Predict the structure.
Amino acid sequence: MDDERDIREGLERIAGAAAPTGRPPKGFRGRARRRMALTASVVALTIVAVVAGGVAGLSALGRPPVPATGGTSGPTPPPWDPNALHIAFQSNRTGDWDVWAMETDGSNLVDLTRDPSADEEPTWSPDGRRIAFASDRSGDWDIWVMDADGSNPVDITNTPDVSERSPAWSPTGESIAYLRAETKIEGISQTQIWLMRPDGSGQRALLLDDAAHGPPSWSPDGSDVVFARVMRTPGTLASSLWIADAGAGKLSVRRLTDGPDDSDPSWCSDGSPVAFVRSRQADSASSDSIWFVDPGGGSPTRAPVPGVGSPSDPAWSPDGSELALVSNSRPTPAGDIEIVEPHASASLRLTSGPADDRAPAWQPRAA
């Protein structure tokens, strides 16, 4: 019974976070609010830089900071600006999880989904015109696609009794990788990586094994995906990063890190490095930090970025110069989205306030 409980807890953690307060759990969970030791929670990362009642400017980025109150939305949402560059993210600031977007300085927040169901984990098409996301509005967790302004949402998986989450649009635009969980023996869900075309056709398993998998991130050329893989070791669960060939030929999988608690990979657009979250347990408390590893192999190195706020959900900018992160520094289990430039030791907070903001995703620059 202890083994069954350990496996169940590990799979729930890699699939993500507990449902919002007052909301029953459905399928497998969204991204984790708190990193826990010996798991592969699937989230993206951020770092806090607060100065005496304000926000540290990011002079290296050449733009002024938005006041900390920029994370709240007004009664009338601003119009969608198709010419601006945006960051999409999930937020519960309206009571339910919705997909939101803001400009890269934190201004002009727009609720794109405005649905009473949970809408989470956005990912952009490579031309920046559409967004795929996970939603339970059909009764089960499915992958949906909508236009960048939130219009024309379509359920592209629509598979009853199967949960699909954590979509990642390939840089070529030809595929969406995602997590699929089906109920296994005694109700334990096993998360596996699947691929499909952007219209939902051609669904196929990329990797089926006895491990549980975290959200995938694509290589710049769209040939490989990197992901966290949770496997049972004597007495515990261990999570490490792996790379799989996404081609239709013979599957090739190789291990990238040794763990035992590595997760949240994000592959840089120039091919190197892969940013990820490494958790370490000390005195019954976990400590999280951002690390880099070359996708070709080698020893990971701790990222030269400010390490405040138990970071999660790292996401590289389109040009590979910045990371959008989630900072989990508040006493409550809520996150703020920030931008950090590696090596610059400065960050810019984009959202703040009582809301929980997660899973930032940069809009690609139009060709």
